[in-house]
Amino acid sequence: xxxxxxxxxxxxxxxxxxxxxxxxxxxxxxxxxxxxxxxxxxxxxxxxxxxxxxxxxxxxxxxxxxxxxxxxxxxxxxxxxxxxxxxxxxxxxxx
Amino acid sequence: xxxxxxxxxxxxxxxxxxxxxxxxxxxxxxxxxxxxxxxxxxxxxxxxxxxxxxxxxxxxxxxxxxxxxxxxxxxxxxxxxxxxxxxxxxxxxxxxxxxxxxxxxxxxxxxxxxxxxxxxxxxxxxxxxxxxxxxxxxxxxxxxxxxxxxxxxxxxxxxxxxxxxxxxxxxxxxxxxxxxxxxxxxxxxxxxxxxxxxxxxxxxxxxxxxxxxxxxxxxxxxxxxxxxxxxxxxxxxxxxxxxxxxxxxxxxxxxxxxxxxxxxxxxxxxxxxxxxxxxxxxxxxxxxxxxxxxxxxxxxxxxxxxxxxxxxxxxxxxxxxxxxxxxxxxxxxxxxxxxxxxxxxxxxxxxx
Lengths: 95, 352
Fold this sequence. Notes:
- The complex is a heterodimer.
- Chain A is α+β, with helices and mostly antiparallel strands.
- Helices cover 38% and strands 25% of the residues of chain A.
- In chain A, strand 1 and strand 2 (17-22) form a beta hairpin.
- Chain A is globular and about 35 Å long.
- The relative contact order of chain A is 0.30.
- By secondary structure, chain B is an alpha/beta fold.
- Mean pLDDT of chain B is 88; it is low at 347-352.
- The A-B interface holds A 6-8, 11-14, 18, 20, 22, 30, 32, 34, 62, 64, 66 and B 76, 79-80, 82-83, 86-87, 90, 95, 111-113, 130-131.
């Protein structure tokens, strides 16, 4: 899947994450997190897994995490991806 | 309008209609802030119909006038506020936002994902919504200029609205005195002539000079972010802190990235803003500061035509009068052709 436009999802509030996504020549992930010391790797893994799931090879992702659970991060990532692509989403496969 | 617990969050558009901002003004005053005139939207958070927090976003994607009632601090209101403002920024097409705030609030905005660019101690700090945006920009400059050799490296920042023989002369003269010269064209589309047109005219008009690099402008050099009052035409007096921010960024980041030793500028007999900028430049670029290399400022006398300095404002004046023939003596051929071909009936009123 190809990221063709910029998008932002989520909020900066506690237990959530704001994810900004944009077209880019490579995979470029920046994470800032209020719980980064303990969970930065875990957060990165969710991001990477979601990108792989959607077969995304190029994207700039900026995550501002406020202690979001993995399921929240994943949900935010999926929304970010669907908003930033012009391709048709197969919702059935996502559920 | 949306309800969030007992809060009401409102989005208020100021331009072009000019919304009702009396209450916002009052609230900002209570928090020692003045309203900024270039704000497009305000977000307010109200509790029992009283504003308890607000923040604005201006053209260029700059967040300012952020205030939170003293009694309501520490409850995460700033996170709600910034979330809304970031979304408005995206709606307006600004995905990389800047923020002005007082230095004591730096930590609070760090928690919103903003990083510091530069500070005027005690007065203001400029932050950006990307990590290392400025550093990455400088890295690119450095990478692209690594093959440039020489000791005397000049720099010129120009708006060229439009490109005149005066600009061309300044670039030629500087290039003749330096090993290399970096020329930046102010990127904001706040001038009568568009950035693309201004850039293309310069590119064409400096083709014969071999030892220069013509750079795309950036938001870190005389932009609405670093120097907002430059673009507010009515104000002839420049807020000193903005000059300081803009020039500190140039000296501490952009200068070292390109190994700039000199900055050239034309003498300014007309514009008060540019004059103040030239004065401030001498101070901030040359002043003793052992941490950052000094950049020598050289003010070059403007090229004259019949004893009157050539300036872009004079060209614009003639242009609006429809006096294209007299412009011919003031601008390079490429600008003349451009002006002659341009439909000069549009938007004339904008520049008065």
